[in-house]
Every structure is written in structure tokens, then in C-alpha cells.
Amino acid sequence: MHLPGLVNYFIFFFSFAGIYAILALGLNVQWGYTGETNIGIAGFFAIGAYTTAILTSPPDPGHLGGFNLPFVVAVVGAIVVCGVLALLIGLITLNLRGDYLAIATIGIAQIIVLFITNEDKVTDGVRGIPGIPRPLSNVSPGAGGLLFLVLVVVFVGIVLIALNRLYRSPWVRILRAIRANEDAVLAAGKNVLRYRIESFVVGSIIMSIGGVLYAAFTRFVSPEAFDPIYGTFLVWVMLIAGGSGNNVGAIVGTLIIWGVWSGTDYLTSLMPAAWGTRGSAIRVFLIGLILELILILRPQGIIEERPPRLVDAGPRGEERSAHAPTPSEGTGGG
Amino acid sequence: MLLNVVQLTLYGIVLGSIIALGAIGVSMVYAILGFSHFAHGDMMTVAAYFGFVGVVTLHLPLPLALIFSMILTACLAVGIDRVIYSRLRNATPIIMLISTIGVSFMLQSLTQIVWGPSNEVYQSGIVLPYKFLGLRLQPVEVTIILGSVLLVVLLHFFLHGTKIGKAMRAMSDNRSLSQITGINTELVIIWTWVITGVLAAAAGVFLGADTQLNPRMGFNLLLAIFAAAILGGIGNLYGSILGGLVIGIVEEVSTIFIDPGYKPAVGFVIMVIMLIVRPYGILGGKR
Fold first, then answer.
1. CB atoms closer than 10 angstroms to residue A180
2. Residue pLDDT, tens place only, A132-191
3. pLDDT tens digits, residue range B208-253?
4. What percent of chain B has pLDDT over 70?
5. Substitution target from B35, B49, B113, B263 for chain A, most A beta carbons within 10 A
6. I want to staple B286 with a disulfide (CB 3.0 to 4.6 A). Which of B54, B154, B232, B235 is the partner?
7. Residues A270, A274, A277, A280: what is their CA dihedral angle, to the nearest 10 degrees?
8. H-helix or E-strand spanning residue A214
């Protein structure tokens, strides 16, 4: 492989890894902190991407807009649309058992993709929306990809620092308490539903930013990109592999799983052509296998959660009680 | 118009029977093992392909192919439990749920590896439908309805008439209590997976016979299956049957008013309304 090819691959690999890292960080707020099972990440991802496509692409009679607006507007737009949607979903489902949230989010993601596929007037259906401008691409010709990668890394950095600071806040302390024992938090007089909705909305907003970056990076969106495998399943495996509850773990897990996913793509491309379509299936199987092995052998993930130390608890901090990365289910809550 | 509604209701009963068979399985796993089995749709997919091997490769008639698929799917279900779920018995229900999602994608990809991504059918060519009073129904659809009724009746007698069936119901009521009264819970779990596999096989083969086979067929029905189980009250088998029929009929009849592409959304909306109004289901299930 000659040098320019290698550089392009490097840019491609890390841009995608950064986008996935943002999705994994969003999921970490929901699952890692609060124990909310959002199995519809692809839906929020899709909304972020399509909002960007419609707001920033040039006018096209084939779909709604485009409105030719700047990238910043797309970020704000995606946050607003996803935030409102997450709020509605949260109000309906978050006072129910975790299982119900899981099935409800699967449904919502499925309906969002159905909407994108069927509503030709808004999204141009299966044809998708091309020509999405990539920010910073006209700053320095030829280095557009690299500059965009820097932008992605900046976004990951901002989200990571914000979430790490937030982790020590009373807000996340209550989220983690809800995860560990919802009834106790209720008994302490906290409005559990409100905190769960807030956590769900914040996580979904972060996911939508992943969608914004995805649309600007690939410059094309179509319904098949938001398949549950790429949009939801990979993100879950990334977070669980890296360590639920740990933001750095989420990023490490993202890099490893994305590395496995991309690396096996290369390996399966070496297989005979007749096996072509089966290649990606083998990779999905492998990712599923990795998930099961982690759940059985190392449920806390590669980097386990490190709760903040008490200020007056000495240098080694307070002995952590069995915090189990397994959020409580709270069956007794109903 | 009325005739159209009646015709669609008939199709809805066919679809509802398939959904109900799936929902009973999901409900049983939830009641006895305590977690939501998100791999159920994909278990149905694999079962449909086992049926495909029976019909196309072994040239078996559909009922024999169904039994062939039931045996293999029951073995598959027990096998997955032995290899994966049994190692997670102490995990929380939500971790189990995530594990079943992993299994779901593994089964889906395995189907694609073994049988390829394209659509398959059990039987090509045109079969003349039965006609009566201006309504029409394919012979295979009659088989689906009658087969589902037969399976539900057999299940009822199994759960109420046999020792293992009674043990299953006991374990669903109170796991620790049934353990100290000497019930072999691991044996009950194996039997639960056998029954779940048999029902998933029927649902999958019927779905394949009614429409066509592809690696996503079961996954795409998962939402309707859970909607049915929740509608009837998850853990309540008779509720699941009722829920399945309601979801199946409403989804089919809704195509008069809205784009058929949104059929899965209709079942979902019913479920959401149900979750708001009566989260424990029509007939009441486990909370």
C-alpha cells in the first residue's frame, strides 16, 4: 500500500472511530451511568444525520430542503430534534421496567428508519441524500479529510471532558444511585423519573452529534446506513467491551471493536468472491461472540468503572462496595 | 368495504397466529427464566431455514418438515442455553437481555453464512386459494390457523396435565419456593427451552410458508411479538394468544387506512398505548 492510500485509510479509520466513540459515550450516559437500555441508538444516529443532510445540503426538489445552512446550525438542529424526541420517548417509557424501554427503543429506531424509507418527500426514500457539504473542506485543498478528522477529535474531546467532569457531579451521583437501587433513591425523596429522563435526553443528544458528524463525513445518507447492526449493536459491544460507566473505557472499547470490525473486513475481502456476501455475516458473528465472551468472562469490561473517591476518605479512597457493572433492574419498583 | 375488512381480518388471524406462537415462547421464557428473550425472532428464522432443508433438500411434506425443524430448533435452544445463558444464571435480567441481543445477531449472521442473504420460498408456483362467500384463503393459511390451535391445545394439556408442566408453572410462580420443594430447576429450564424451541419452530416455519424466507424475517417480527406478549400481559400464555391475534388483525386491517409499509409501526403504537394505560396487559401478567 503506497503512502497516500495509507494516509487516507488512517483518516477514514479514525474519523469513523471518533463518530462511534461519540455514540458510545452517549450510550454510556444512558446505560453506563443510569442503567437505561437504549437498543435504538441507530434511530437517534439517523435523526442527527438526516437533520444535517436536510439543513446543510443544497436545495433539491427530491427531498425537503436542502437549506444550504452552515454546519453549526445542523449541530443545533440535531440537538433540538433529538432532544425533543428523546423527551417524548422518555416520558412514555422511563417509568417502566428496563425490558420495556429496550423493546420501545427498538421499535422507535425501526419506525424512524421506516419513516426515512417511506417518506420520499422528506428524505428521498431509499435513494438517500447526496451532496452534504463537509465543513473545513475549503480551508486547505487536499487536506479536507485530515482537518475534518481534527474536528471529529475535537468533538470527542469536548464530550469526553464534559462527561468526565459531569461524572463527579451530584447529578451523575444520583443517576448511579438510580442504577444501583432505584427504590432507595425514591425513598430519599428524589424524582427518579425526572433524572432518568434527563439522562436519556443527554445521552440521545450526544448520539445525534455522532449522526451530524457521520453525515458530514460520508457526505451521503441513506436508510441502510442505520441498520441495527452498525447503528446499535456495534456501539453496545464497544461500550460493554471497554467498560460500562467508564468514559475512557468507552473510547478504548470503541477503538478495539472498530479495529476488529475493520480488520476483519480486510480479512474477509481476501476470501473467494463467491463468499463475498457472507463475509460481513462472519464479522457480525464474531462481534456477537466477543460480546458473549465479555459478558461471561469479564462483565466489567476492559477498564472498569472508577467511581470518584470521597474527598475525606484518604489517598486510596473509600473501599468500593460491589458496584457490579450490572444496573439493578428494579422489578420491585412497579 | 365490509368484505375487504373481513378478508383482512382473516389475513390478520393468520399473521396473529404466527405472532401468538412467538409471543407464547417469549412469555414463557420471561415467566420461568425471568428475562426478555430478544433472540426469539432469530430463533424463528433459523427454524424456518431448518424447515427449508426439510422441504427442499429432503423433499419432506410440510408437516414432516415442521416436525424435523421442531426437533432441531429445540436442540438449538437447549444448546444456546447450555453454552451461553447457563453461564449467566446469576446475571441481572438486563444483562441477560443484552446477552440475548448478542445471540440474536449471532443467529442472524449464522443464517446468512449457511443459507445466504437472498429470499427463499418453500414452494414456488401458484396455488389456487379456497373461496367461500367472496373471501379467499390459501390452503397453507388454513394449515397455519389449525396448526396453531392444535399446538396451543397441546401446550395447555402439557402445562396442566404433566408433572414437568406443573413444575414449570410452579417455577414461574415462585422460583426459590419451587427449588426448596425439590423441583429440579435446571431440568425445568431445559424443558422450557424445548417447548420454546418447538413453538419458535412452528412460528418460523409458518411464517416462511405464509411469506418467504430471509435472514431478517424473524427479527422484523420481534417488535410485533413483544407487543403481543406485553398487550396480553407478559408471562400470561392466554394473554399472549389474545395479544397476538389483536396485533395481527389490527396490523392487517390498518392497511386500508395507511401505507402498508408502516404495518410494524401500528403494532408498536398499540403497545405504547397499552404501556401508558395498562402496563400489566389485558389479562394481567407478571409485574
1. 18
2. 998 887 777 778 889 999 999 999 999 999 999 999 999 999 999 999 999 999 999 999
3. 999 999 999 999 999 999 999 999 888 888 999 999 999 999 999 9
4. 99
5. B113
6. B235
7. -30
8. helix A192-218
- Tally of residues, chain A: 334
- Give the pairing of strands B135-137 and B130-132: antiparallel
- Distance, CA of B30 to CA of B204 (rounded, Å): 20
CB-CB contact of A57 with A68 (8 Å):
yes
Among A136, A138, A137, A117, smallest CA distance to A128 is for A117
Task: Mention every residue, 6+ apart, whose C-beta is less than 8 A from residue B105.
Answer: A229, A233, A284, A285, A287, A288, B42
Note whether A103 contacts B109, CB cutoff 8 Å.
Answer: no
- Name residues 235-254 of chain A within 8 A of B (Cβ): 236-237, 240
pLDDT digits (tens, 9 = 90+) for B29-48: 999 999 999 999 999 999 99
CB-count burial class (<10 Å; 0-12, 13-18, 19+) for A187:
exposed
Q: Which residue has the cell 440537538?
A: A79
Distance between A211 CA and the closest CA of chain B, angstroms: 23
A286-to-A264, A292, A301, B107, B211 alpha-carbon distances in Å? 9, 10, 17, 11, 30
Residue A118 and residue B261: Cβ atoms within 8 Å? yes
CATH number of B2-120+138-277: 1.10.3470
| Selected residues 231-250 of chain B with any CB under 8 Å from a CB in chain A | none
Beta bridge partners, B213, equal B120
Query: Among A112, A74, A269, A90, which residue's Cα sits nearest to residue A195?
Result: A90
- ipTM over 0.95 threshold: no
DSSP SS3 for A141: coil
